[in-house]
Queue: 3 jobs
Job 1
Amino acid sequence: MGSSLLFCFQTIRFKMAQLLSTCFLVLISMQLVKSSAVFELKVQSFTTTTSSSVCKQSRDCQVFFRVCLNYTQDVISYRLACSNGTGLTETFSSDQSSISTSAPITVPFNLNWLGTVSVIIEARNAESSNDQPTEKLNNMIGHFATNINLNIGQKWSLGEHLGEQSELRFSYRVVCDEFYYGDDCSDFCRSRDDPFGHFTCDDTGNRICLPEWKGDYCAEPICLSGCSEEHGYCEAPGQCKCFIGWQGPRCDECVLYPGCLHGTCEQPFQCTCKKGWGGLFCDKDLNV
């Protein structure tokens, strides 16, 4: 009776540990699951239509661009602060090759504001390559404000602004932030190989378990092939540890009642006597 209770207690404890581990991973995921996206804008070309140089001093003419987002359909003056995010490029030469190969400007984007937004793009000069991008109004050489429609997708949309003194062509898009996937960027997946999971992520954010791991979060090790799922378990891949009352390489052999000599078992701690034997321990020869 005591052995059976111990066996039940061990089984329940193991199952509870598995359940608690799963719940913990679910709670972590719930905290991480939130929509996260990025607005990207890349300047393709910028030219002035006047004979004057872009910079006051043309010897070392450097420029940079600033993007401002406002979640409103009203185009807001550049003199007002950006209400919903801003981004700057690095400082680079004003020649078209440098401008067209510059990295995109990235601004964190609130997905609640998908649709029409106001975008302000400013071209500014930095008289020297040693200057850091600053937002002083006196260094502005171009200002462009427009409304654009934003949706999540990898495809770039094209835009242009043709002014009296300058021309700007650009491309833009909204994409999921790093480690976020799905139509609303709410599926979080980040490859890991630690006690909280063993997986990589595919292009759509699905978890792909590493070899020898399984489960929704790839936190369950795959036991030794043939290990009894009912009577065995493992704490690391390739193991086969037996619950109390079971034994053998694959935990499929029951443990006899202590002291049983000529008996068998179908369940732990039984002692079913073989033919010709009797007694509590099957140690009495019935043929004598």
Job 2
Amino acid sequence: MLTERLRHVADAALEAAVIPSFTRIGPTVRRRLFDWQAPGTGALAGQVVVVTGATSGLGRVIAEGVGRAGAHVEVVGRNEERGTEVAADLHRQGIRAQFRRTDLSDLREVRDLASALLADHDRIATVVHNAGALAPKRRETADHLEVTWATMVVAPHLLTRLLADHLDRAVWMSSGGMYLQDVDLDDLGWEERAWNGSRAYAQAKRAQIDLVVEATERGEAPFQVAMHPGWADTPGVEAGLPGFRKVMGPLLRDPEAGADTAIWLTAEREASLKPGGFYLDRRPRGTVRWPGTATSTTDRHRLRTIVDAQVGLA
């Protein structure tokens, strides 16, 4: 039987190798190393969990997972037909759920979502910021923000701040792609650079982590953590990264493995988690693997100031 120290050594070796860690090998090995258990059926009983981007992919799996643990699930997404179908499917499984049609790239709709949630719930246990997409072309929102940045950075920040007095926890779904990208504070909207959807996506994912760390160091409510799902086979990967999917397909995680840590972070006791931590496979990880991608403390402060101004909270 492996000792605790040997289990951690094996986990660290996986993480250092990257490909075994990020692919289906990672959760397969770690599940056995650490004897993972799914949250019990009553672990989230009586709690409200909001999941954005919950109409497909990882978000749908997260919604089902927290629902099976007893949560009332607020399903947030843009597509009315898919969202209604997901909520109905959850109901058929005995899960309490409601669909909230919201385009997170529109800050007015984000504010309307927060108002509706607060009108219906005195307390929200967790919001899982899962929504995101890789855009092939640069587009701007009605608020004059680049869509990727608005959807994955500005909107979740605004929703967290609007719910803060009634929210216990925020879980941000980042991406391993952020390891390869820094945050260009002088061109967050890609107005000066030639558009690169993959890099814009990775920049937004890096910024998510920076905002979580900044809020935690300020001592702000709610409790916040970030995570990445590894390389999971999702509709987003199929549509946005077809070449990567073709090469890595046999090794990609299934959506259940990609969503596992988000579900676990929602149900785990706060005292067991690292405030502001960045998780993969139920363990906190480093946020820098490549030189020049780390965000300095000064730039992190500046990022927060910029995003506060973009949402009108400056």
Job 3
Amino acid sequence: MNLNQLIYASEINRLGSFSRAAQTLYISQSALSKSIHALELELEQEIFIRTTEGIATTDFGRAFLAEAEKTLQHVDRIKSMAVQAEEKKGQPLKFSATCGQMLFASEIFARLLAQYLNADTDFQFYQKTYSEVFTDVKDGRCDLGILMTLNLYTEEACSLFAQNDMEYHALGRLNVGVAVDRNNPVNELGITRLRKGLLSEQLLITTKETIYPFTREEKEIRTAFGNPRVVYVADNDTAFSLCGQIPAYFCVAQSAKIYNKLNLPISMVIYPYQNVNLKYEFGWIKKNQTELTRVERTFISEIMRLFR
């Protein structure tokens, strides 16, 4: 048994697929399968069972993955110690990331920043549209980009990244949901799931993407939600503000489990939408030749933990 096998098993469990785990780990699916098979032979226990609907974990597999997660967290702590040791070398710690409008990303950055308040740092953190995240990384303004794509065009986005000498690593998928203010009239209906027509008189708040295939999101969302009227804003803060003043909503990932892990309260009410099967895939990008700093790798590790 080795550390890579623990990482492999954790990624398969997180993504629910050998093929998608192989993509984000940058190894072939056959090599991944052989590594897990060798691990199962060594342990004389099955970890995963392949089914027609994907994979499932055995009882032993669930216990194994829980222990593997503890080990990986310990490894992350050791890496953090190495980052702290870097401070003593007299070189500023570097970090540059550009992210979509994700509260969890800014929260993790804030916690990371708090660890280095007294250190010599060169930190940059931006939150922008996904088109701008792509451009920032492509043009070298930031080492690292965190974004999400609708599952309908994730493959097209990956082709765009590859054409621009970028690596893409999947983090996980979450269902698309609807966020409304706590004073929105739909909250008085006593429902747990929205159905088509309930928001027909309300505005859809969204940001404006400029690069294909990110521009597809607006069309897909509008179609799924019955072609509502749209208002464009610069960021989620503006969307939050507008939704508190007028009957309006915007689309988000159903990410309650992530915010629970961070112990963050959710200020909006998030509903699943009946018969809308869209998913957001979260991932991170970098230029092929870019070597991420230790702080940047720690940032990625913390985000990956949220999706496990």
